[in-house]
Specification:
The complex is a heterodimer of chains A (about 240) and B (about 300).
Chain A lengths: L3 E12 L2 E12 L3 E5 L6 H8 L5 E7 L2 E2 L5 H7 L1 E4 L11 H8 L8 H11 L1 H5 L10 H13 L5 E5 L7 H18 L2 E6 L2 H7 L2 E6 L2 E7 H4 L3 H7 L3
Parallel strand pairs in A: 3-8, 3-9, 6-7, 7-8
Antiparallel strand pairs in A: 1-2, 1-4, 4-5, 9-10
Chain B lengths: L1 H31 L6 H17 L4 H22 L9 H23 L14 E5 L2 E4 H23 L1 H11 L1 H6 L4 H24 L10 H16 L4 H21 L8 H15 L14
Antiparallel strand pairs in B: 1-2
Helix pairs in contact in B: 1-5, 1-6, 1-8, 1-9, 1-10, 2-3, 2-4, 2-8, 2-9, 3-8, 5-6, 6-8, 9-10, 9-11, 10-11
The chains are: A alpha/beta (about 240), B mainly alpha (about 300).
């Protein structure tokens, strides 16, 4: 694993007067699933929002060897980074199908329609509800839509902000199984920010543990999941 | 009976004009959940530009279309120069700015064209299309209503069938996710302002072309209040709701107030707002407004 797709170096971010991230560095390799774990307020969401340009940061973010630190969100998505924000971030007043079309906003190729069809094949419930407003979907369906919406931009890197939040355990499991399939079948690289360490480490290649705005631990997911200290501190073991 | 018909026809005429301004308000509201209090004055200024172009010798419909383009460009410029500097989520400063614009635009029109009423070009044929007894439905009423429908159809297609329309709807639904999907929010809102101003200019031109009216800088003051009420009645975020709201206000004004003896004519404005109050009590999202359905 030498092909670094995304590299964050010495990232700091502040909200008002408060510094949330104190110069963290991490990498995401091509075709892998990386997770950032941490408790509430550790800075997970801030990290992922920094990557897609939603907040001002200092430090360097390189994607495909290109510096994207100063780019606006609409340019970053054009580089191939899609972001599923916390709380799904669907367009509640728009129909399910229009949500998918907005996801493909940056594209003008002929394959948008067939990609929409692929989303429906993956999640038939979205097909059933294609003319319903997204706001009327259940939490699990919204998350399916949010992920499908992000994939419609055909990203190289998919950023997922706490996809398990507020969902029933069996829905979370199905969702993460789907992430694994996407990763294996299409080689979509993913960076997932999660509180649910058990399930995230279960499918990830590598993990970082974020603690009060600093990277406390990093390593292979398989070793993190067996680390006594980590289990005690973060996995509620 | 004749009188009743005549009042219905009058309601249709006024209602169509209110609906057109209400449509402009709805466009801005959809984009920003903001009531643009300057909309009426932007429309008035646009109508004056149309008048000026016509005085310079342009054919009247070319003048209307050019006036719509110019007011669209002006509104786009206003958005870029003033509105975009402020946080779109913080409404109070923006509302005060639109009130300020209201005053400035009114003053600008007064400086250029003075307060003397001027004749506006007759956009539609004279005379009556239909006479029933003593009630006359003028060609003007028919064309005013027809152009209102035409504008709504065009906007409907633009918003629902085009990519710029999709981005406009996306921005109005979720600002943050729109950015994450690659939509440039600023230019999209600017487009909304331009579109609203063009629609407003069209509405004011139709309004001022009423044979019984002349144009002067305060022509839209009264109409704006009726139009805001119409937009709210329709649901604030629904184009067709604006039409329904506009017509309802038109009919309240010309029919209801005339037949309920204890409402003095002076209370027409208040009566429309009272109806709004009653409707919103039972239907908080207006006739056709989006109900806040969101499961989390």
């Amino acid at each position: 694993m030498t092909n670094v797709l995304l590299k964050a170096e010495n990232l700091t971010a502040t909200y008002g007067q408060v510094e949330i991230l104190h110069g963290i560095s991490f990498e995401v390799y091509g075709n892998e699933i990386a997770v950032i774990l941490g408790a509430n307020g550790a800075g997970k969401t801030t990290t992922i929002r920094a990557l897609s340009g939603m907040i001002d940061t200092t430090g360097t973010i390189t994607f495909n060897k290109e510096d994207i630190s100063q780019l606006e969100p609409d340019s970053i998505v054009r580089k191939g980074v899609a972001h599923v924000p916390q709380g799904r971030g669907t367009f509640p007043e728009l129909t399910v199908e229009d949500n998918l079309r907005v996801g493909a906003f940056i594209r003008s190729d002929k394959e948008v329609e067939s990609d929409i069809q692929n989303c429906y094949d993956t999640y038939p419930v979205l097909f059933e509800r294609r003319s319903q407003s997204a706001g009327s979907l259940s939490g699990g369906e919204q998350q399916m839509l949010a992920v499908s919406r992000a994939l419609m931009s055909r990203p190289e890197l998919l950023l997922l902000d706490e996809p398990s939040l507020g969902l029933a355990p069996q829905i979370v499991e199905a969702l993460f199984e789907r992430f694994l399939i996407m990763n294996k079948d299409h080689g979509t690289t993913m960076l997932i920010v999660e509180q649910n360490a058990q399930i995230a480490l279960g499918m990830a290649d590598r993990g970082y543990v974020l603690e009060a705005g600093e990277i406390a631990v990093e390593g292979q997911a398989s070793s993190l999941i067996n680390d006594e200290a980590i289990i005690r501190a973060y996995l509620g073991g | 009976m004749d009188l009743f018909l005549q009042r219905l026809f009058d309601g249709l005429t006024n209602g169509s004009a209110y609906a057109l301004i209400a449509v402009a308000l709805v466009l801005i509201f959809k984009a920003t959940t903001l009531i643009n209090f300057a909309q009426g004055e932007q429309a008035m200024l646009g109508a004056f530009i149309v008048l000026q172009l016509w005085n310079w010798g342009l054919p009247m419909w070319i003048a209307v279309i050019t006036g719509m383009l110019i007011s669209g460009l002006l509104a786009g410029g206003l958005e870029r120069a003033i509105i975009r500097r402020f946080d779109p989520a913080d409404h109070l400063p923006l509302v005060i700015i639109t009130l300020g614009l209201f005053l400035v635009l009114n003053a600008v029109a007064a400086i250029i064209w003075r307060y003397d009423p001027l004749a506006f070009p007759q956009l539609f044929p004279h005379g009556s299309a239909l006479t029933i007894g003593n009630a006359r439905l003028s060609w003007y009423s028919i064309f005013a209503f027809g152009s209102c429908i035409l504008v709504l159809l065009l906007l409907h297609v633009l918003l629902n069938k085009t990519k710029i329309g999709l981005s406009f709807r996306a921005v109005s639904s979720n600002l943050e996710s729109s950015r994450l999907c690659g939509i440039k929010v600023g230019p999209t809102l600017q487009f909304g302002w331009a579109l609203a101003a063009a629609a407003g200019t069209f509405g004011a031109s139709i309004y001022a072309a009423n044979p019984v009216l002349q144009i002067e800088p305060s022509i839209m003051l009264r109409a704006l209040i009726f139009s805001i009420t119409a937009a709210a009645l329709g649901g604030l975020d629904s184009l067709w709701g604006a039409l329904l709201g506009g017509l309802t206000i038109g009919f309240i004004q010309s029919v209801l107030v005339q037949y309920i003896p204890f409402i003095p004519n002076e209370m027409t404005l208040a009566a429309t707002v009272a109806v709004l109050l009653i409707v919103l009590t039972f239907r908080p999202s207006g006739f056709l407004g989006t109900k806040a359905v969101e499961r989390v």
